[in-house]
Amino acid sequence: MDSNLKKKKIIIVGAGPGGLSAGMILAHRGFDVLIVEKNSRVGGRNAPMKVDGFTFEIGPTFGMLPQVFEEIFTLSGKNLKDYMDFQFMDPLYRLRFRHGEDLHIWKDKEKLKAEIAKLFPGEEIGYARWYKDHITRFDKIYDCLKVPYNRPYHYLRGKLLKAIPSMSLGSSIHGVLTRYFKTEEMRIAMGFQAKYLGMSPWKCPGAFSILSYSEHAFGIFHPIGGLSKISEEMAKIVGEYGGKIELDTEVKEVVIKDGKACGIKLADGRILESENVIMNADFAYAMKNLIPEKERPSYTDKKLDKMKYSCSTFMLYFGLDKQYDLPHHNIIFGDDYKRNVDEIFSGKGMPTDPAFYLQNPWKTDSTLAPEGKSTLYVLVPVSNLQTPFDWEGKKKELRDMIVGMIKEKTEMKDFDEHIEVERMFTPEDWEKKFNVEKGAVFNLAHNLTQMLYLRPHNNFNDIENLYLVGGGTHPGSGLPTILESGRIVAELIKKEK
C-alpha cells in the first residue's frame, strides 16, 4: 500500500452498490474515503425495507454473475465467503406460460433439455446449439464491458474488434433467438431477460442475449439475509479500512472550480473538500439537481429529457401469515407477451394483461419473516413517467388486478386472506422517494446510441475529477454491472494518480 495515497481524499455521493464497490476497493488501496448518503441506511434501492418483522428487498432480487462479487471482494483484500452465504437456486426460476405450462430452468443441463423436450418437442436441439454458441459469445462480449470507453479510440481495442462479429449488430435479442427456437414460448423464455435492462426483447440489442446465458451458465444465487446484505457487508468493509460513511447527509451540489470537481456542498451548508468526487446518484437526477447546467454542456436539461429511458415498475410487497410451496423465483406471462411489452414502451400506463414476477424467498431464506410467515415480492413492468399517467388515481385498480391474477394464475388461491403487511410503489414513488428520473428504475436505456462510448463516461467528460458509477454509466444497469462500474472507476483513479 502506497503511504502517499492515504492523503488523497475521495468523496462518494450515495451509498448504493456502485459507490460502495468503488469505496471498498479505494479504501483498501489507502485512499481517504468518505461516502455521504441522504438516507438512514446504505444500499439505495439495494436496501431492505423492514416492516413488523418482515424484511423486503426494495429492488434487486436476482443474484447473477457470482464471479463479479467474488472479484470485487478479492480486489478489496477480502474473501466473499467470510461475509456472505450464497445459496444457489435449483431451479433457477419457474416460467408459467399463457396456457398454464410450467418451464423450470434447472441447473442440470440434461434435466433442463428433457423438460424442454417434453413441453416443446424439438426445441431442446435449438437450446443445445444456443448454449454452445453463447459460451464463446459471452466470453468475447463480457470482456468488453469490463473496461471504460472514455475516448473514441477505445473502440479500436483488440478485444472489442474481435467481439463485434458476436454482437449481432442490427439485430434484437428476439431476432437472435429466432435463429435457435421455433416456438414463441422458448423465445420468450430466453429473451425476457431484456427486462433486466428495462427494455423490450424486440428492441434490445442482440449482444445482450448473453444475459440469459449468464443465468444458465453461472446460476442464480440468494444471499442469506437478502441481496440487501451485499450492500451492508460492503459498507462494513469500507469501515474496516478506515473509510467513513455519513448517513442522513444530503448533498446539495458538487463544488466545481475551473472545470474541476473539488468537493461537495451539503444541505446543511457544510462544504467538504476532496481531490475526486464519485457520483453514485441516479444519473439524470444528479445532472439536473447537483451540477449547474453551465458546467455540463454535454448533458443539458434539454438533452437529458430527449435521452431514452428504461421502463419503470409497479411494486407490491406483502407480508403473509402463511407460507406457500412455490419456487423462490416465478415469472408469470399473460396471453400476449408481445402486446404487453408494446404497451409498456408505447407509454400505456395501465397494462391490459401484464406479465409479472413473484419472489417467494422463504423457500430459501427463513430469516426474512417471522416463524410460520413469509414475504411476497411482486414486480410488474410498466411505462416510465415520460408519458403522463394518473398513478395516484389508478394504483388501487392495478393492485386489485394483480392480486386477482396471482390468485387465478398461481397456487396461492387464498393469499389475499393472509396479508398482514402491504406496501406499494408506483413509478411516481420511484421518482419522488428515490430520486429516479422519470421513474426509470433501470436508468438509461441500453440501445446502441447509449452504449459504450455513447453512454455517460465513468470519467465524466465535462468535469475533471468527477467520476460516475451506477446504472446510468458504463457498463449499465443490473447489480453485477453496477459493481463493475465501481471497479472501473477505482482503476481509473488509481491509474490517473
Task: Detail the topology: elements first, then pairings.
Elements lengths: L8 E5 L3 H12 L3 E5 L11 E4 L2 E4 L8 H10 L10 E3 L5 E3 L5 E3 L4 H11 L3 H22 L13 H6 L9 H5 L6 H8 L18 H9 L2 E3 L4 H13 L3 E3 L4 E7 L2 E7 L4 E3 L2 E4 L3 H8 L10 H6 L5 E9 L8 E4 L4 H9 L10 E4 L14 E9 L8 H19 L9 E7 L1 H8 L31 E3 L10 H18 L1
Parallel strand pairs: 1-2, 1-13, 2-9, 6-15, 13-19
Antiparallel strand pairs: 3-4, 5-8, 6-7, 10-11, 11-12, 14-17, 14-18, 15-16, 16-17
Helix pairs in contact: 1-9, 1-15, 2-15, 3-4, 4-8
Q: Describe it for me?
A:
The protein is of the alpha/beta class and 497 residues long. The protein folds into 3 domains: 3-86 and 225-307 and 444-496, FAD/NAD(P)-binding domain (3-Layer(bba) Sandwich), CATH 3.50.50.60; 110-218, no CATH class; 311-434, 2-Layer Sandwich (Guanine Nucleotide Dissociation Inhibitor, domain 2). Helices cover 33% and strands 18% of the residues. It is built from 15 helices and 19 strands. The chain has helices at 17-28, 66-75, 109-119, 123-144, 158-163, 173-177, 184-191, 210-218, 228-240, 283-290, 301-306, 337-345, 391-409, 427-434, 479-496, and strands at residues 9-13, 32-36, 48-51, 54-57, 86-88, 94-96, 102-104, 221-223, 244-246, 251-257, 260-266, 271-273, 276-279, 312-320, 329-332, 356-359, 374-382, 419-425, 466-468. The strands form 5 sheets. Strands 7-6-15-16-17-14-18 form a 7-stranded mixed sheet. Strands 9-2-1-13-19 form a 5-stranded parallel sheet, covered by helices on one side. A 3-stranded antiparallel sheet has the order 10-11-12, with no helix packed on it. It is globular and about 65 Å long. The model is unreliable at 1-6 (pLDDT under 50).
